[in-house]
Amino acid sequence: MDTLILATQSPYKQQLFARLQLPFHCQNPNINENPLANETPIACAQRLALGKAQVIAQHHPLATVIGCDQLAVCNDQLLSKPGTHAKAVTQLQQLSGQSVLFYTAVAVVKGTQHWVDHDSFCVHYKILTLAQIENYLAKEPAYDCVGSCKSEGLGISLCQSLQGNDPTSLVGLPLILTIRLLALAGIKIL
User: Fold this and answer.
1) What is the pLDDT of residues 10-35, one digit of tens each?
2) Which among 190, 189, 187 has a CA at the least distance from the CA of 3?
């Protein structure tokens, strides 16, 4: 079995990847994640996922490295992780009744080869009152999540509907896509 490295320090992505029951370890790629001028969200997510994997692969040329990145857009505006309670409240107020498109890219680097693709997922938020927002954040402070919501937890109660092929995309690592790219690199799950 190849050495597998997940290029992230995100505990959410680590928990997702652990579902595949493959031995792996993680390393922080520590790259600049700012979008380039006129870069589309999909292009940016793919560039960052590949960049993260390549940075780690430079130090581990015999490993298979998985990089991932996620961007979210609402009304043509790029969303970010709120970081604080006040910013999460503001973000959820802005997202109330809106739809958010999440673009999650995965890159697999093995030696001189690499494979990159992305998954798209849409979250339609309910119309939210300030009381609902405050109650949610008191129970699940999603300050480290784009969209201020953990759909895999209580955040599902903020959602009107979800549209997409792989709900793990919302957590930041689409496993269906990851399995497909790992297979191209010669790593089979089953």
Assistant:
1) 999 999 999 999 999 999 999 999 99
2) 187
Q: Is 72:145 a contact under the CB 8 Å cutoff?
A: no
Catalytic site positions: 69
Residues 6+ apart with CB under 8 A from 145: 81, 155
Residue 121 has, within 13 A of its CA and on its CB side, a CA count of: 26
- Calculated CA dihedral for residues 161, 97, 83, 29, nearest 10 degrees: 50
List Cβ neighbours of 29 (8 Å cut-off, separation of 6 or more): 7, 8, 51, 52, 53, 55, 56, 67
Q: Is 165 left (phi over 0), alpha (psi -120 to 50) or beta?
A: alpha
Phi then psi for 25, rounded to 5 degrees?
A: -135, 170
Closest of 53, 72, 56, 71 to residue 181, by C-alpha: 53
The model's pTM is 0.93
Query: Which residue type occupies 132?
Result: Q
